[in-house]
UniProtKB/TrEMBL annotation:
It comes from Humibacter ginsenosidimutans. PANTHER family: 2-METHOXY-6-POLYPRENYL-1,4-BENZOQUINOL METHYLASE, MITOCHONDRIAL, METHYLTRANSFERASE. This is Demethylmenaquinone methyltransferase. Signal peptide: none annotated. One of its GO terms (molecular function) is demethylmenaquinone methyltransferase activity. Residues 222-245 are annotated as: Disordered.
Amino acid sequence: MFDEVSVGYDRTNTVLSVGNATLWRIATTRAVDPRPGQLILDVAAGTGTSSASLAHSGARVIAADFSPGMIAVGRQRQAGNPNIEFVQADATQLPFDDDSFDAVTISFGLRNIVDPGAALAEFFRVTKPGGRVVVCEFSRPPASLIRAGYYAYLRYGMPIFARLASSNPVAYAYLMESIRDWPDQHTLAGMIRRAGFERVAYRNLTAGIVALHRGFVPPTEADAAPSAGRGASAAPNSVDPKGDQ
């Protein structure tokens, strides 16, 4: 499905989100707080739009996605960006070593994974001690009036916009169903904690239509010591995936 919509994916997202996709991407980038020299994993990176935002800071970004069609479009569009590397990967079996990344992030992709709990456990495994995970995902508006209007848009408005903007509008029926069935903010925060992350918190974006979650891998005793900083120079220059690129 994602292979089929890869070419027009970014344009369709802009239309269906009524322009909010850009604002959500900015908020996610700020939450990740990428720094020069850091190594960041962007899961479900699609065509690399979110990865480009992260790489703008000077961080090196591994853009991982399950869809070869998305990766092909991403490699073409981000060909001039030396700080982005595309890797085809299954989020539940990431082809990276333990403690590889300063941060792991995923935007609007966790609900598309068959076992999101397994994916979160993998995010925890590949993140360095003291590192962070940032999850941006559709959520459930807490205000009943806004929630009713939002679900009405999903049921009646989104199919109309999808027919106008997408090359495969039928595929976006899945989008509506996946958003409707996805758990609320509190439940997702609990899933992130169960994966091992600490200091888990979230904040609502656009009245709770989207929620931005963040958690941290507990630091080691050496990391916690005042004399032992985890600077940008500690980030490796590259990560060699165990699978095909």
